[in-house]
Amino acid sequence: MAKKKHTEQLDFEGQRPGEELLFVFRRHIIAMRKGFYLLLIPLVITAIPPLIWQDNLELFLLPVAGLALGLVLFFYHWMMWYFTVYVITNQRLRQVTQKGFFGKDVVELRLSKIQNISYNIPGFTGEIFGFGTIVIQTFVGDLVIRNVEHPEKTFNKLQDAVENAIEAQGGHEEVTNEAES
After folding, report:
1. What's the pLDDT tens digit per position in 62-112?
2. Closest of 117, 84, 83, 94 to residue 21, by C-alpha
3. Orientation angle between helical segments 62-82 and 33-52, nearest 10 degrees
4. DSSP annotation of 27
5. Residue ranges of the domains in the chain?
6. Is a pLDDT exceeding 50 seen at residue 151?
């Protein structure tokens, strides 16, 4: 008895007819560490004057302004992290990278054109926090994706997707060659 698999078809901008979304991933939250620093540094710096001159009550508004500035800077980095995604379908890998508030870069790579995939976990911090780098090699160059969450799981999913895409393309070529004979 075959199990019926429940799959919810999700759509994305630029999806082609007959293209099936396999999974979506983004970089690890550690990629936003600069944003966290930019949140804390203005707050800490603006908290120093009220600690030194405690009799001046107006200085206690400085940390509020520092927090507001830190939140704006943090929001910018959060937006860059959140809107940078990697979409894997049964045909291609699509990298959408947020550039500034209004710009974005899109890179597409057919799965059948991928030669090799490897991953690297950068030492102790990578092991503890669960992030690493995935390198996708093609004929024209390498696509390096840094700070990927759970790189071994993503690597395995990518390997399976590439293998299935190559098999599907090979099966299609065999069918067309047989039809020509």
Report:
1. 999 999 999 999 999 999 999 999 999 999 999 999 998 899 999 999 999
2. 94
3. 180
4. B
5. 34-78
6. yes
